[in-house]
Structures are given as C-alpha cells and as structure tokens.
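2024-03-11 09:14:02 DEBUG pipeline.ingest accepted 1 chain
2024-03-11 09:14:02 DEBUG pipeline.ingest length=170
2024-03-11 09:14:03 DEBUG pipeline.predict start
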Amino acid sequence: MRTPINRRTEAVVLSARERAGDGGNAEYARKRILVVDDDPSVRGMLARVLVGESYLVWSAGNGAEALEIAAGVQIDLVLLDLNMPVKSGWDTFERLTADHPMLTVIVITARPNQLFTALGSGVGALLEKPLDFPKLLQTMSELLAESAEIKLARMAGKPAEFHYLPAQLK
C-alpha cells in the first residue's frame, strides 16, 4: 500500500531508490526515516545527508503531517524537532509512540532545558542544534540496532542507554 506523500518527499524517496540501483527492491532492507521539522532548509539538509547514507527518507513540516505519514508508512526512526506549528514536538511524540510503541525517536531541537523531559519520556536520544552530523549518524545506527528489550526498558523508565549531545558552540 502506498501512502500519499508530497512531491518533494516523493523525490527524496525516488532518489534513494535510484541510488540503490535496483528500482526500489532494496526498500524493504533499508531503514525508513521520518524527518519532522518546520524549517524546510533543515528538512532538506537532513534528507540529503540521510539519502546519501542510503536511508529511505520521508519529510514532514509539522506534527500533523508526521502522524499522517507514520499512519501509512512503516517508519523505523523519527528525527523530531520540538518547536513546530500545528502540533508540538512533544504532542507528536506522544501520539507517535502511542500508535507505534516500538518506534525509535531522536529529538533534535534548539529548545533549551529538554534533557530531563527527554529522559523521562522514553526517547532514544536528545541532540541539540546545531547538529553534529557524524554523531547524529552514529546515534541513529546504534539506536536502529537496539534490541526490542532495550527499547521496552527505555519506554518503561528502566535503565537503558540514552544518547545526549548538547549543542556545540563554535
């Protein structure tokens, strides 16, 4: 079943399929990433980096769009900004994880003082903007490789590895 997605997102997905060189057959083996950020330049930059790393990428400009995409496409990991119109990042997180309890979420934000909220919520990581792309990719790889038991422990508030990368001021 194919979900309706906007043309820009479709172009990113098709680009990823073409890079695979198989017309899309590797789609099932490759991880599906949803990038949720209200800033189109951030979405575009993240999508380019992730497609370059052979991920399949969907993009949403707000929480409502993210929920619509997640309802129609099996997503493996979400990169979620907190400051968004229509539906805030934390509201989107709650709905996404209620509908998809095993979904891995990385919060990416410029909003200060989110560490304790993130720790208590069950997110896999909190990365503050500006992003360090090599560390983002490493964190994504580690979280995507986690077992179901580790994900469940984190969501239940039990001890589990948490990835935190504060903003790097240059």
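2024-03-11 09:14:41 DEBUG pipeline.report The chain has a mean pLDDT of 84.
2024-03-11 09:14:41 DEBUG pipeline.predict end
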